[in-house]
Amino acid sequence: MIEEMELKTTSGRNESVLPTTMDDEDHYEPFRHRRVKKPSSTSGTIIHMLKGSLGTGILAMPSAFRNGGLVFGLLGTTLVGVIYAHCVYLLVSTSQKSSKRMRVPQLGFSETAQSVFRYGPHGTRRFANVAKAYIDYSLLIVSFFSVCVYLIFISTTLRGVINSLTGLTWDTRIYILLTAVPLIFVTQVRDLRYLVPFSALANTLILVTFCITLYYIFREPIDLSGRQLFPEITALPSFFGTVVYAVEGIGVVLPVENKMKHPEHFLACPGVLGTVITFIMLLYNVTGFFGYARYGASTEANVTANLGSDEVLALSTQLLAALAILFTLGIYYYVPMDILWRKVKHYFVPERHNMAQIAIRFGILLAMTALALGVPELEPFIGLVGSICSATLGLLTPIMLDTVYRWPVEGSFGCYRWRLVKNCLLLAFGVFILIVGTYFSIKDIVSIYG
Questions:
Q1: What are phi and psi of 8, to 5 degrees?
Q2: Cα pseudo-dihedral 445, 448, 449, 450, rounded to 10
Q3: 8, β-bridge pairs
Q4: Under a CB-based contact definition with an 8 Å cutoff, are residues 314 and 308 in contact?
Q5: Which of 49, 164, 308, 316 is least surrounded by CB atoms within 10 angstroms?
Q6: Across-strand partners of 260?
Q7: How far, in Å, CA of 145 to CA of 18, rounded?
Q8: Contact 100, 28 (CB under 8 A)
């Protein structure tokens, strides 16, 4: 889209005559010009956003509170949620403003970055295509390899539950092959609207798992004695790392916002973003606080492992979590396939687009399944890639885009340039998370292969 415009907007203006204040931009309303086939409702968008951030990470929150302590855990988790919500706000707001400046109905994540850099300060304009390529390939890497990790997670969980209930001794690789069969059909869904039922079912399963876990947590009186209230300094990196990667789901934000029937509802107050973040923070804090309060220092990385294996109901929580991931893989597949298809579809004649999409989707799933079968210790490496890309995509990139967009516009940073100061503080936090995540991922790799 942007490449076709080169150094001009669709109205023909040259980049040298950009607006000098926010009020100088043309009165172009991108929402009025959106023509989306089968748009998603506001409620459907909320479901997709919930699934983008609400996953099995909720089951790791008691472990995060074990590292952070009860009081600091509540404060820290809420802080991370507020920062992430603000970064999402910056990304969507910058994308909408860039669409208005470019006079186009909508822009994707990478297109927004390209537009911002191309029309930002003179020193950034030569990096416009680099910014677009970085985001595209980062999303592809994280999304496709996440499919592989989730495939291993589902298979390992199924092995533990089914082998325990039936007495079988099947290897994880057998369950990987069995799990790949339904994924053949799930990953062929191309329309975001048709993924709503899958996301809704996945959210329901996670909530049921959440409720069963709470039942085990609260079925006996909770004793807070002996529980840490504040963390050791050395435990802070693990706490923030767990919470950030549990909450972050930046890759689905603009794709679902661009598909909305009423995109103005996304940033409204109350709107999609506020509703989703409030709900997620409530669930994460409740699970983390009371999970750690119940199990203390023995809290496992996945709290369902603390429920025991001698009761069918306890085992069912693990099974439900695995099924939730299975039904949500369609939405994880949607974003990278949308990016990849835009890059390769010109190689196929229109009459073969349908067969080409089927073949590409199946081929990638086949490759990820083969990788899971051959390298079951893949998780640490994916954690390394995810740490680097997720921190930059979810925290650093939205802040950077907002800063670059505002830089050439007079007065856009506010009184005493408070927005610039705020962005610098958030960038420092993002760099801290980036370094922490990378360090612990490398540490895990060394511990396995060292």
A1: -130, 155
A2: 90
A3: 14
A4: yes
A5: 308
A6: 40
A7: 40
A8: yes
User: What's at 384, amino acid-wise?
Assistant: L
Matching residue, tokens 């329309």: 191
Q: What six digits make up the tokens of 114? A: 């390209």
- Amino acid (one-letter) located at 435: I
- Please report where in the chains the tokens 């798992």 appear, as a residue: 209
The phi, psi pair for 309, rounded to 5°, reads -120, 10
Helix (H) or strand (E) holding 77: helix 70-102
Apex 53 CA angle, 50 and 58, nearest 5 = 105
Residue among 261, 287, 283 nearest 272 (CA): 261
Average pLDDT over residues 399-421: 85
Task: Copy the structure tokens of residue 101.
Answer: 């400046």
What residue has token string 């979810």?
A: 394
Cis peptide before 270 (omega within 30 of 0): yes
Flag whether pLDDT at 373 surpasses 90. Answer: no
DSSP state of 372: H
pLDDT at 380: 63
Q: Is 14 left (phi over 0), alpha (psi -120 to 50) or beta?
A: beta
Cα distances (Å, whole numbers) of residue 421 to 83, 115, 123, 410: 15, 24, 21, 16
Give the range among 67-81, 109-123, 125-139, 366-380 with minimum mean pLDDT. Answer: 366-380
CA-to-CA distance for 28 and 25, rounded, in angstroms? Answer: 8
Tokens standing for residue 26: 């043309």
DSSP state of 339: H
C-alpha radius of gyration, the chain, whole number: 23
Residues with Cβ within 8 Å of 155's Cβ and at least 6 positions away in sequence, in order, are: 172, 173, 175, 176, 178, 179, 372
- The number of angstroms, rounded, from the C-alpha of 247 to the middle of its chain's C-alpha atoms is 7
The per-residue pLDDT for range 47-69, each reduced to its tens digit, is 878 876 766 677 788 888 998 89
Task: Kindly state the DSSP code that residue 202 receives in the 8-state scheme.
Answer: H
Angle (CA) 276-281-283 rounded to 5° is: 100
The encoded tokens of residue 290 equal: 């009371």
On the CB side of 362, CA atoms within 13 Å amount to 9
In a 13 Å sphere around the CA of 64, the CA atoms on its Cβ side amount to 29
CB–CB of 388/434 below 8 Å?
Answer: yes
Cα separation, 4 vs 10, whole angstroms: 9
DSSP label at 222? -
- Joined together, the tokens standing for residue 106 give 């909508």
